[in-house]
Structure formats: C-alpha cells, structure tokens
Amino acid sequence: MPSRDPIKVPETGRRQALGLSRALMIALFGLVIGQIVWRQAPTTGWRWVHRAEIAATSPAVSPAVCAVDSRGKRLMLGAPPMRIVSLSPGTTEMLFALDLKGRIVADTTYCDYPPEAKSLPKIGDVNTSIEKVLAQKPDLVVADAVANRRAVEPLEQLRVPVFTVPQGNVGQTYDALRSLGRATGQTSQAEHLVKAMQARVNAVRVAAERDQKRPRVLAIVQMEPLMVVGGGNFMDDLITLAGGINVGRGAGIGWAAYSPEKVVADQPDVILTGRSEAAQIRARGGWSGIPAVRNGAVYMVRTETVRPGPRMIDAFEEIARLLHPASFPARR
User: CA neighbours within 13 Å on the CB side: how many for 195?
Assistant: First the structure.
C-alpha cells in the first residue's frame, strides 16, 4: 500500500494559525475575567477592546440617584435632578441648605427664606397648581408628606417624580435632610449639615441643664379657635429638649384643639406663642391668675423659624433661653 507523505503547512500559514490561536485564547480569557469585550469602533470596525480603553474614551456619566422617601417609596433617577420644584416652605429651606441654589426652579408663595426663595416662580400656596408645576418641567418635586399630600398622587399619575419628607420630630427632620441629600446627589452636604445641627443642639442642652427647673410650657398656635402644640411633633421635641414640660401633649398629636378652661387648669409657667396672639393672651379675661400671665412669661417665638428644617435649631435655642435665662449669657 503506497505510503502517504505528511501534509506540509507553509511556514507563513503556521505562524498565522498560531497567532490566531493565541488571539482566541486571550479573547476567551478576557471574556472570562470580564475585562475584554467585542465592540464595534467607528473607524476600525468590530474588534476586541479592553474595558480600560472604553472607560478612557467614553463621556462622563453622572452617578445614579437612589433614595427612599417618607412613604417608603424608592426614587431611582439616572442622574441628580437639575430642575427641582418645592411644595412647602420647610422643604424649600432644606433644599437651599443643601447647596442646591440654581437647581430649585419654583416654590410656593409662603417660601420666604432664604431671600432667593422669594424671587422664584410660584406654583401655589397650600394649594398646589398642578399646571404650574408641570410648566416648570421638573425632574423632581419635593413635598411635605402631610401638608402636600393632595398634590402628590395627581403628580405621580402624570409620571412626575415626587419625593416626600416627613413633618415630624427633630429626629425625623435629620432623616429628611439625609434622604433629601441622597435624592439630590448632595449626600456629603446633608451629613455635614445634620452633624452641625446636632452639635449645636447638644451645646444648648448642656447649657440648659445647668438650671434644674423644668417649667410647665403651653405653646399656643392660635386663639380662635384655640389650638396648642400637642405631642409627636418637632415643637414638642424642642420644648422637651430645652428642659420644659409640654402640658399640651395630652391634647393629642400635632396641633390640637384646646379649651380656655383647660389652660386655666393646666397653670402653665410659660406660654409660647406668636406676635398677634401674645396681646390677646395677656388681655384675656379669666387668665390673669395663670402663672405665665401673672409673671410676665408670655413669650413670642419667631414663627418664621418654627418650621421643620435647619432653622428650627434657632427656635430651639430661643426657647431654651426663654425657659432658662440664667443659663445663657445675655445677647449684645
């Protein structure tokens, strides 16, 4: 039987086959470790490309936003929002405090702080105009979970991203600032702000605790009908942290209805209220024997600082000074 000579492969072909084999092995290895991908380039066509090369030639992409609001609803955005509409004075103050000036495009007629908030387009007051919100083409709407609850659902039905913050106690206000920081890409600014607020609260508490007295405090929101600060809210927290006892706590949660007779029965040592209510309280018949009225301890608290937000710490210090004047140096 005739012998067959082995097939001879030309040297150039052998080298090409070896090069192809090596390229294939490198590509397979790259695929395994996830560093090399098959990609089409505009000038060179399809080829194997290392991920480092892709990263070096790709445009920068903003980090995704992921945050959970007060309803437990998750917000997912491809990039930090650049057109934010605020639906309440408190949320407006929080957003400005997070260094978001320039990205807030509208707020309400009640938004008066900082001064820049006054000049923004207005989308309503306590009643939100959905049409005016949509006209701003927002990529995020920030709402108070309680005050703006009627506006949230219509906006979400129109596929507008809405992020709610709680209207609660001091701890919830810290949480609101942190969650807003995550929702807007301002996480580090939010953490810095919260830590500064906490440090100030601690300093004021230490000063207030030098006075062992715990005065009975009634915070009157309005006179007709009579409403007071109840429990479970940031004002109740501020009174307690300042070393007082909120006698209105038993009336219910939030702002609660009260009777004139109950004020007399409670015998508060201090009454906190607004400017217009203070004169009415001092002049009201049957209240002259109340310790707060008799001793001139009916104090006006600046209502513009009594909002859930960064400036509530100003209100806290003011309340602590009113309850424990000897514990704080006189203001010049």
Answer: 6
Question: Among candidates 172, 194, 264, 189, which has minimal Cα distance to 226?
Answer: 264
Nearest residue to 311 (alpha-carbon basis) of 101, 91, 85: 91
Q: Tell me the two tokens of residue 202.
A: 């601690």
What sign for the dihedral angle of Cα 218, 221, 225, 231? negative
Strands 84-86 and 104-106: parallel
- Quote the radius of gyration of the chain (alpha carbons, Å): 32
Put simply, whether the predicted model's pTM sits higher than 0.85 gets the answer no
CA-wise closest residue to 89 among 58, 60, 64, 123:
123
CA separation (Å) from 163 to 52, 166, 182, 244?
36, 10, 11, 34
Per-residue tens of pLDDT for the chain, all 332 residues: 555 555 554 555 556 655 556 655 655 555 444 455 455 454 555 555 555 554 455 444 445 889 999 999 999 999 999 999 999 999 999 999 999 999 999 999 999 999 999 999 999 998 999 999 999 999 999 999 988 999 999 999 999 999 999 877 888 999 999 999 999 999 999 999 999 999 999 999 999 999 989 999 999 999 999 999 999 888 899 999 999 999 999 898 888 999 999 999 999 999 999 888 999 999 999 999 999 999 999 999 876 667 888 898 898 999 999 999 989 877 66
The amino acid present at 271, given as its one-letter code, is I
Tokens 């437990």 appear where? Answer: 72
How far is Cα 165 from Cα 310, in angstroms, rounded to an integer?
14
Sheet strand arrangement including 162-165: 104-106, 84-86, 140-144, 162-165
Residues 6+ apart with CB under 8 A from 279: none
Closest to 297 in 3D by CA, of 271, 321, 275: 271
| Element holding 94 (H helix, E strand) | helix 89-97
CA–CA dist 245, 323 (Å, integer): 10
